[in-house]
Design goal:
Blueprint (H helix, E strand, L loop, with lengths): L1 H10 L4 H34 L7 H41 L3 H4 L14 H4 L14 H10 L9 H16 L2 H7 L3 H8 L2 H18 L5 H20 L1
Length: 237
């Protein structure tokens, strides 16, 4: 669904204005963070990994390690301050466009003008404290703890992506839980069903892979909110 979200954003022009004011500055800032990390830390990490890695794998694992640190720093520095509200608007607009405005109305006003073809323009003010994915200190700590997995030859990178994706998946669907009015217990019961637990892990893992792609990671950050909305629509169906 993160990939579906990307395609959805490309093919639905009503979402484009939400991206314009955020995408370029955030992309430039994220690139600056990554450039600094690669200039200062990449070669030392490669040299360290070369002590116990096979030829070539040290470079790959070091790349993922640095990109993981970059994703963590970008998340802490930029996402909550500059992106989260835009993600809320993207999510809600997709839900309205797909016919689930009754859920969005649980948290914010939605215009009744059915002749208005732009779902974004139908959205009223956001609900107080609206968040797409809440800041999770536990997730940050787990990400820091799991980063050294990238030092493990071959298996380390997939394990890192799967385990971080397992934690990220439910957070990426947080807005849906808010629209449904779930209590903490209802949310946990919903997430922990066997089928959805694996679905959330794969959703989060694909999201983490996209976040490790230098440059367009900020684009994927925004389009993943559309993917989350499409997934929520699928759940409702």
């Amino acid at each position: 669904y993160p990939v579906k979200g990307l395609w959805y954003c490309v093919t639905h022009r009503y979402l484009w204005p939400l991206f314009k004011s955020r995408l370029l500055p955030l992309t430039l800032l994220s690139i600056c963070v990554l450039v600094l990390l690669f200039l200062t830390a990449y070669l030392p990490v490669v040299a360290f990994l070369a002590l116990f890695h096979y030829q070539g794998s040290a470079w790959f694992n070091a790349t993922v390690f640095i990109l993981g640190i970059g994703a963590l720093l970008i998340s802490l520095l930029f996402e909550a301050l500059f992106v989260d509200k835009t993600q809320v608007d993207v999510f809600d607009a997709v839900m309205v466009a797909e016919g689930y405005e009754h859920l969005v109305k649980n948290r914010r006003p939605v215009g009744e003008d059915i002749d208005e073809s732009d779902p974004v323009k139908r959205l009223g003010p956001r609900d107080k404290g609206a968040t797409f994915a809440p800041f999770s200190l536990r997730q940050v700590i787990e990400l820091i703890v799991l980063l050294p997995l990238n030092f493990v030859p071959f298996a380390g990178v997939p394990l890192f992506l799967l385990l971080t994706g397992y934690r990220a998946g439910p957070l990426l669907n947080w807005r849906y839980f808010a629209l449904k009015g779930f209590t903490k217990k209802q949310r946990n019961d919903f997430i922990r069903t066997k089928k959805r637990r694996w679905e959330y892990m794969w959703f989060g893992t694909v999201y983490m892979v996209l976040q490790l792609i230098p440059g367009p990671s900020m684009l994927f950050l925004l389009t993943s909110s559309a993917g989350s909305a499409l997934w929520s629509v699928h759940i409702e169906q």
